[in-house]
Each structure stands twice: as C-alpha cells, then as structure tokens.
Amino acid sequence: MRIIVDGFGGDNAPGEILAGCAQALEELEVEIAVTGDRDKLLACARERGLEEPFRKMEVLHCPDVLTMEDEPGSILKEKSESSMAVGLRAVAQGQGDAFASAGNSGALTVGATMIVKRIKGIKRVAFAPVLPSTKGFFMISDAGANVECRPEMLLQFGLMGSVYMEKVMGVENPRVGLVNVGSESHKGDPLRQNAYGLLKECGEINFIGNIEPRDIPYGQCDVVVADGFTGNTVLKLYEGTALAMMGMVKDIFKKSAKNKLAAAMIYKDLQGLKKTMNYNTYGGAAIIGAAKPVFKMHGNAQAPAVANALRLVRDCTHSGFVELIAAAVRP
Amino acid sequence: MRIIVDGFGGDNAPGEILAGCAQALEELEVEIAVTGDRDKLLACARERGLEEPFRKMEVLHCPDVLTMEDEPGSILKEKSESSMAVGLRAVAQGQGDAFASAGNSGALTVGATMIVKRIKGIKRVAFAPVLPSTKGFFMISDAGANVECRPEMLLQFGLMGSVYMEKVMGVENPRVGLVNVGSESHKGDPLRQNAYGLLKECGEINFIGNIEPRDIPYGQCDVVVADGFTGNTVLKLYEGTALAMMGMVKDIFKKSAKNKLAAAMIYKDLQGLKKTMNYNTYGGAAIIGAAKPVFKMHGNAQAPAVANALRLVRDCTHSGFVELIAAAVRP
To answer: Could you tell me which chain B residue has the CA closest to the CA of A144?
Structure first.
C-alpha cells in the first residue's frame, strides 16, 4: 500500500509531517510518497536527522503551498500546483492508494470532490472526524463539509458513517443518531423531520432516532448525523469545552503547594484522561464519499499524531471502505 | 414587586418550588403568588414545615398541571387551566409583575408569545439562558424558542440580549457574537451571511463578528446569537460536555485510596469549580421579547436554585427590561 502525504499541510509542516511519515514507515508496512518542494523537504530531513527514512520516500515535487488563508476554491485555480492539489491528483490517477493532509479542510473537501471525485451515487462528501466519548469514540458525519443540506444527504451521511464505523473502526452494528432538539420524531425543522423519516426507513443502518446534544459526550450513538453547520458546531464546541474544563482543572492544581502535591499523586490517571479526550488519539477525519481514501489530519498534529493518522489511513484503505460505500449506495 | 410562580412546574414541584419561594420571601423583599391546586400546596407546605411563609403567599388556585409530555400548544387548549397557563394569564392581566416556571419550556414559550404577547415590533421571543464561562458568564439568544429563523430575527436576538446583559447582568458594552463555522464575514449559509450584515450595521450593539463554537466556553463574547436550533445545540452540548468531564474527573478521584486522599486535599477548590460551572448559579433563562418578564427556571431546580432564579426575576423586573427593549426596537 502506498500513501501520499501532503508535506506542506498544517501548522507544523514539513518537520512534524516528515517525522510522522518516518515513524509510519517503520511501524506500518506502507510506502510513503510526500508532496512538496524537494529541496525544502531534503533540508528539513537533514535538519531533523531523518535522511535515512526520507530516502525511502518518493517525493512528488511541487513548489507551491496552499495555506489556511487561501479560499477553498483556490485548489482548482491559483493553487492547482500546491502540495495538496498535486497529492490529490496523484491519488486520483492511481499513483497511490490514499491521500492525507493536515492542511486547509475546506480546500481538501473541494479537492476531494472535484479532483478525486465522488463515489457514483453519492450526493456530497462528508467531513467525518472520530472523537472520544466517555465510553469510547464516535463519529460526526458531516462535521463541516456542507453548510446547507437536503434530507437525502443526511441519509447518506448516516449510511457512510455506519459503514466506516463498522468496517474501519470495528464497531458492531453501529448506532446511528440524528442530532436534534428533542428525541421525538416530529422535533426540529423540516430538514430534520424529513431526514428522520429517510433514516428510519433505511434498512441498512441501525437508526436509533434523534440524539440530543447533551447525550453525545456519553457515547449514546456511534455515528452522529448532522448537516455540516450543526456538525461543525458540535465538533468545535465539544473540543473547546473539553479543553476549557481541562484548563480549569489544571489551574486548580497549580493554585498552591498542597494542590500541586495532590496533582502529583494522581498525575498518571490525569494523563490517562487527557489521552482519552485527545482527538489526536483517533488520528484524523476521513472525507467520506470520495472515490479514493482522503484524510484530514489535525492542523496542529505533531509526529505521533501524524503516525496515528497514517495508521488509520492504512486500516481504512485496507478495509476496502470506498468499495463498501459504493456497494451500499448502489440502487 | 409581586412575582407569580408556577407551583407545579418542574421535576421537584411543588416541594422545592415552595421552599424556594419561602427563601425568596425572606431574602428578596418581594411578594409571591403561587399557582396550583390549593389543597395540595397547603399539604406540601405542612409536610415541609413551611406553613408560616406559605400563609404570606397568595394562591391562584387551579387544579390542572401541564407536564413535560404535553405538547407546547396544549397551553392554549386542553391545558389552559393549568398552573402555567393561569400564571401567564395573571401576569398578562397585571396581577403580578413577572412570572417564573420550572415547567415545560416549549409550552412556556408558546404561552409567553400567545398569552403574555410580544413587545410591539418584536418578531419572536427568544429563550435566553445565562451560562458560566471560564471567565464569567454569557447568554445564548436564542437557545431553542425558534428552530427556524430569518436574519432580522437574529438581529433582534442580539439586540435584546445586549440590553439584558447590560441592564440586568451589569455587563458594560456587551460583546455580541454570531455563532458561525468561521470568523470571516462571508462564512456560513445565507441566514448567517445576512444576519452578519444586519448585526454589523446596527449601531446600538457592540457586534464583534462571528464567534466559533470552540471560543464560547472561554467567554469570548457576552451574547451568543444563534437560531434556536443551533443555540439549543450549543446549550445542551455545553452542559453535557461539562458534566461528562466533571464525571470523568470524579471517577479518577474515586479510583484508589491515594486518589481519594488527593481529592480531599483539593476538595474546596473542586467545589468552587463545580459551582462555577453550575448553570443553576445564574438562576434561569428569560423568555426575552415578551411584554412582561417571563422566566424559565431549570427543570430540576431545587430550593436554592429557585430562590436564585427569583432573585434574577426581581432584578430583571426592577431594571425595567421590558420597557428598555420596547424603546430599543422602536423604529
């Protein structure tokens, strides 16, 4: 298997990306191709003592970089020679089995749709991160690719998410829930009411009905279905609230010598909690619905998170996820 | 000042409601009238040793109760003689200065709109809870009264929220932010794009632009403007995530004898955090835009939370909030 990695996406590129790729080469039995400026990549590899693993990677040379400030549509125009665009074209043309980038999510979504293209029958790709819950993990589908949605799109987000959670994440008979303002079927606006009907009628998923946002952190369902606006709100508020709470607990522990001692006593368990609630543990978000595996790594991912993400990319690709989705939507 | 209280709204009615009213009578220099079945209220007062404060309350007798299972619209039909409906009619007719209930939010919103009526010029009432942040507190406007909104409604939610935070909560020049998927003005769907324009043009508020959900817990703005679907999602996910995190920290503290000792060492500070993050500290949510002060108390409020809520009701009524809103929307 050959994974193409955007060498210049994310806050810590190219250093942490290269280091993560090096770790992946060692641990994952995959080939790696990196996109970006060859000279800069080589210089960076030297600086970090990564010449040897770097020699094992192919470089898809391109001088340009698409930044966080660029418009999503720029990937098709002025940034069509950027490390992200080149990687997407390479995977679309079969030069690799999957593509991963820690760069601009909006551009990656546009690129997945327009360069890699969608699976036949899929109306829209979804941004689908896997996040920690108190009991394990769950997926949001869609967490931001589509701010405006129709009911049949929400049905597909649920279907694709269910296949992913079962085949890639190993969840048996994944519970699919629709984010809504109440549990009863008539709740919400027409989008929710109609999506509820479609999800309920779909025989291929385990639809458990509406899920109220307060139950999401407790892992009440495995696939949280939402329009991209709501899903993005859930994603960002969940991350923000968890971080804010951790910060407040940390502040308490720093308040006095006595508190510092107490912190030292439970340090190991607190680190465990921090790891549980760290979204980097689950490695990244698939852009599901694209005709090849395309992954978004966290923008501030460091080497271990990059390696984690590449493990997920490998498992996803190995599962034949794209073909499974194609089979599921075949009329 | 005379506050009318729904004696049979919420999970702990009438016991905790009566006890909270008794506390309010003692602390707040207000008169209290309670709605509900007179005999049941009297029996409850006796059982809890509250005969003396109960004698000081007026009872607006009505045998019926509107439950959490009732449809919101039932307040105008089969439940028009319930403790909630009777209280709303009483405040509408000037038998009291404000109304508070811990019962069914949907029915209370319908009742505030149809029985108490809206302030002239206000398109929709908003459900506007005040919640804790890491730095203080903030309001969500609207947190669930209107699942479908137009841009001019979001403008009014911001305007009303701003007046409330300034005049009732004492926040100087409140920062008003629009919940959106990105900070730039063009982000989001047409509802967000158009609301952004209206909020920006409005000279009477301190509009700071879009706010991303991850910044909400840090108190980046004082009034979080949202359509009711998004606002309700923010409200419930925020509460749920904070509770889940507190639960996980608590589990760590119970894990071993050593951890229990550490917990004991920082017990007082942890209680402080718990209090900070307890939405009951801020007493309740105003239904802003109604022609009289109408308040929702938390459904599981106990006596101290009820008393806190009534303090807020008193302060809000005292501020002349309704008249200030009426003046702000006058063309």
So the answer is: B181
Question: Would you say residue A176 has pLDDT above 80?
Answer: yes
- Pairwise CA distance, residues B60 & B37, whole Å: 8
Interval A308-321 mean pLDDT:
94
For residue range A86-141, list pLDDT tens digits in order.
999 999 999 999 999 999 999 999 999 999 999 999 999 999 999 999 988 999 99
- Going by C-beta distance under 8 Å and a sequence separation of 6 or more, which residues neighbour residue B163? B321, B324, B325, B328
Contact B216/A240, CB-based, under 8 Å? yes
Q: Closest approach of chain B CAs to the CA of A206, in angstroms?
A: 23
- Rounded to whole angstroms, the Cα distance separating A2 from A60 reads 13
* pTM for this prediction: 0.93
Q: Is residue A282 predicted with pLDDT exceeding 70?
A: no
The rounded mean pLDDT for chain A is: 94
Picking from A108, A20, A102, the residue whose alpha carbon sits closest to that of residue A311 is A20
8 Å CB contact of A258 and B266 = yes
Report CB contact under 8 Å: B241, A246: no
As a whole number of angstroms, the distance between CA B317 and CA A157 comes to: 47
Closest CA to A144 of A66, A221, A217, A239: A239
Per-residue pLDDT, A267: 84
Instruction: Flag whether the ipTM exceeds 0.90.
Output: yes
Instruction: Kindly tell me the sign of the dihedral angle through the C-alpha atoms of B324, B326, B329, B331.
Output: negative
Residue A279: per-residue pLDDT = 61
CB-based contact, A214 to chain B, within 8 Å: yes
CA-based nearest distance A41→chain B, Å: 31
Domains of chain A (ranges, CATH numbers): 1-122+289-331 (3.40.718.10), 126-281 (3.40.718.10)
Which strands sit side by side in the sheet containing B31-36, from one edge to the other? B58-61, B31-36, B2-6, B98-101, B294-296, B285-288, B126-132, B137-141, B223-225, B175-179, B206-211
Low-confidence stretches of chain B (pLDDT < 70) are 278-283, 331
Cite the beta strand spans of B153-305 per DSSP E: 175-179, 206-211, 223-225, 285-288, 294-296
Contacts of B191 (CB under 8 A, 6+ apart): B149, B150, B151, B154, B227
